[in-house]
Amino acid sequence: MKAQKIEYLHISTLLAFILIPLGGLTTDIYIPSLPAMAGDLSVSVQQVQLSLLLFMVSSGLSQLFIGSILDSFGRYRINLFALIVFSIASFIIALVPDIGVIYVMRIIQGITVSLIIVGKRAFFVDMYSGEKLKHYTSLFSIVWATAPIVAPFIGGYLQVTFGWQSNFYLLGFLTAFVLFFEFRYTGESLQKFQSFNRKQILNVYSGMLKTVDFSMGLLIIGLSYSLLVIYGISSPFIIEKVFVYSPVVTGYSSLGSGLALMLGGITSKVLINKNLFLKINTAVILQLIFAGLMTIISFGANGFYVLLIFTLLIHFLSGFIFNNVYAYCLQRFSKNAGVASGLTGGGIYVISSIAGYGLINLFEIKNVQSIAMVNLLIVVLTFLGIFIFKRSVLTRTEQ
Q1: Angle at 311 between CA 310 and CA 316, to 5 degrees
Q2: What is the pLDDT of residue 246?
Q3: Which SUPFAM superfamilies match (predicted)?
């Protein structure tokens, strides 16, 4: 098997960082196109939104189990296969505008994205250690946030200029382009393959999920990301139907949301040596204040700028909390990096998709007021999660 060459390690590292945001890119690039897709395909808004949910659930559930496969069979060949299948699925969506076909291809994309992303996160644990590993894992959520920044911005212009299919053509060509460099410069990074023992693997999963600080960490980052999911799914219809702006405005608003998330992650990186709980406790309290103010103000001023300003503030703090807890979860079980990476990434998607899609339909989000109340509920749940997370970490360190 072709091993990762040290002289190409810097190129492989760059390629890994390029692929880590693929999941967010695959969901966010066609967010400005959701209303147009519903009209063009002659389906309901809920049916188009379901394509997002299917991708997130398939990606999240598959990530829960893919880690053990990658730890047993390696990263390299599986990654190449996944890139090929993902690219083909993207072209099929663009060429066959049928909602049933789109659903199937989105599920396939979700599974292949999981194989790619979990393998790339585990790559860093395979190839780096100590402060270098800590440095790179702290960059993950910052790099991941590039998708919510760039994707809707590009998608808005693609929608206006070429139509919604162009988003999927772009995804297909992009992954085919990266595939060439992956084949040329990367190799197998896993140095010690683990035997694929189903009972042993289930025990590893069970042990991780029963670890309170790890499982509560998953809940916190899942809830934090669900704020972005809810805004991404709901905002196109509020901005384009209620406020009657173009998809380009939707793209710009999502650009601001993604920038806020990234700035939160960058701020977390700058404060990496500060006390973990001082940072996330302060952030979640500020989130409670802003979410509460957004809810109160929205009853009297239900406008676009109320939506945008408070979204930016809440998402900035969400990115800050996410980055801190995400890095903690990835490094919690270094001996089973693939499993930990899969559970962390899968937990984010499963929790955020269930919370996001569930709350969207429960509250029937159609205006600023309803999205403000949902934000407040999620932030309250995050506050409770951080309280339990802190107690479990402190208990473990005292033992």
Answers
A1: 100
A2: 87
A3: MFS general substrate transporter
**Which residues are within 8 A (CB) of 310 and not within 5 positions of it... i.e. 6 or more apart?**
290, 291, 293, 294, 297, 372, 375
| Cβ-based neighbour number of residue 235 at 10 Å | 24
> Residue 240: which of 31, 26, 94 has the closest Cα?
31
Domain edge (last residue) among 151, 170, 186: 186
Question: Which amino acid would we find at residue 385?
Answer: G
Q: How far apart are CA 144 and CA 341, in angstroms?
A: 14
- Is the confidence at residue 358, as pLDDT, over 90? no
Is the pTM value of this prediction over 0.70?
yes
The domain containing residue 235 runs over which residues? 211-398
For residue 349, the number of C-alpha atoms closer than 13 Å in the C-beta half-sphere is 28
CB 357 within 8 A of CB 53: yes
Contacts of 223 (CB under 8 A, 6+ apart): 351, 352, 355, 378, 381, 382, 385
Of 208, 222, 215, 264, the C-alpha closest to 381 is 222
Confidence bin at 352 (pLDDT 50/70/90): confident
Rounded Cα gap, residues 300 and 293, in angstroms: 11
Give the CATH number of the domain where residue 297 resides.
1.20.1250.20
Task: Quote the CA–CA distance of 136 and 250 in Å, as a whole number.
Answer: 32
Residues in the chain: 399
Please say whether the beta carbons of 337 and 127 come within 8 A. Answer: no
